[in-house]
Structures are given as structure tokens and as C-alpha cells.
Design a protein that fits this description.
The chain folds into three domains: about 35 residues, no CATH class; about 80 residues, no CATH class; about 80 residues, no CATH class. Helix content is about 40%, strand content about 10%.
Length: about 200
């Protein structure tokens, strides 16, 4: 199976210990210890990070956000946080249309402007862009709400011949099974490698 960590079903973090961790490993072939966000924070390497959470989140307690923020401070001095009131697990009022949430977009764009001010040349990660295009053609609603409608239109026209590519069909079929979306899609792209004439799964 490709990218098994990204296809891990949603399991509460507190259950990924002990016996349950062994079950996850046996059934899904995933080491839950390295799928933890705490493990991922080690790669910050003093890079800036934006962390968001809602104070009354019923899916992931606010205390988890506090622990993550404290852990992140071990690996970077540049942390921005955004918290919202209520039970807004996806931060936005309507997670299918994030651009409609003005405060969310204001904070996000402020963070992006800070990044580009320090690093005016932002390199496009080809694998990530490719997977986001594939997800868009696979009718993933998250990747059909664009901040750049002209870019979206150009992509639709330029890549029209590949809209029925096997990769698009595969992602489309996986959506209802594994709910692949949000950060899982760029995560898949980040683990692709270019071998000279084609992308390969870097986890194999």
C-alpha cells in the first residue's frame, strides 16, 4: 500500500499507546510512535510555524494544542498561534470554504507575508503541487476552493488531457474509504521523488 501513514484511520491520540499501538501496527503496518505530531515537530529545525486550535474542540482537547506548542518551542523560536472560541475543529466556520472566513485568512496571509519577507524566493515543491492537482481533478472539495482562480483556470486548461489519469481515478476511489484530504494530500506529494522522467513513491 502506498503511503500507509497517511491512510491511518482517525484514532484518538490517547489510544495510540500500549496494546492499541500494537494493534495499529499489526493491522495497518504503521508505527504510531512516528506518526505522532510530537515526532513531526523534531523536523522544524528553527523554521517558523503557525499553530491553530479551537478552545472547546471536542475532537482534540485544547490541552493537546498547549502540549504541542510547548513541544514546538524546543525546536523553533518562531511560533505564531491562532486560537478561536467554540468547537471549531477545522478553525474555519466552513471548512469547505476557508476563504470565506476573514479572520482565518487574515492570520494565514499575515504568516505567509512574514515568510516571504524573510525568504523572497519561494520554491514550488513539484510533488506537492502535482498531488494537489490530482486531488482537485478527483473532486476533492478542499482543493477546489482556490485563492488564485486564474491559476486554477490555467491548471484546468493545461492539464485537461490528464483529468482521467489512473492516479486521479485512484485518489477519487480512495476518498470515501480513507478521507484523504487536507494535509494528507501535500504529505503524499512531499514523499514523491523525481527519477529523471517520472515521480516515484519515496517510501518504497
Amino acid at each position: 500500500m502506498v503511503m500507509r501513514e497517511a491512510l491511518l484511520p482517525m484514532i484518538p491520540a490517547e489510544q495510540l499507546n500500549g496494546v492499541t499501538g500494537e494493534i495499529v501496527r499489526a493491522k495497518y503496518h504503521v508505527d504510531s510512535s512516528v506518526s505522532s505530531p510530537f515526532y513531526a515537530l523534531r523536523g522544524l529545525n528553527n523554521r517558523p510555524v503557525l499553530m491553530m486550535h479551537s478552545r472547546k474542540d471536542t475532537q482534540v482537547p485544547y490541552s493537546c494544542f498547549e502540549k504541542l506548542a510547548a513541544e514546538a518551542s524546543k525546536y523553533t523560536d518562531d511560533i505564531d498561534t491562532m486560537t478561536v472560541d467554540g468547537d471549531e475543529h477545522f478553525i474555519c466556520k466552513d471548512f469547505t470554504r476557508p476563504t470565506a472566513d476573514k479572520e482565518y485568512m487574515r492570520r494565514l496571509m499575515r504568516f505567509i507575508r512574514k515568510l516571504t519577507a524573510k525568504h523572497p524566493y519561494v520554491k514550488t515543491e513539484e510533488g506537492v503541487e502535482l498531488m494537489e492537482l490530482v486531488a482537485r481533478f478527483a473532486d476533492n472539495s478542499v482543493f477546489n476552493d482556490s485563492l488564485a482562480p486564474r491559476y486554477q483556470k490555467d491548471c484546468d486548461e493545461w492539464f485537461a488531457a490528464w483529468k482521467n489519469h489512473p492516479a486521479v481515478k485512484w485518489i477519487h476511489n480512495q476518498l470515501p474509504v480513507y478521507s484523504i484530504g487536507y494535509d494528507a494530500v501535500p504529505w503524499l506529494g512531499a514523499h514523491l521523488t523525481w527519477n529523471g522522467d517520472a515521480f516515484e513513491d519515496g517510501s518504497c
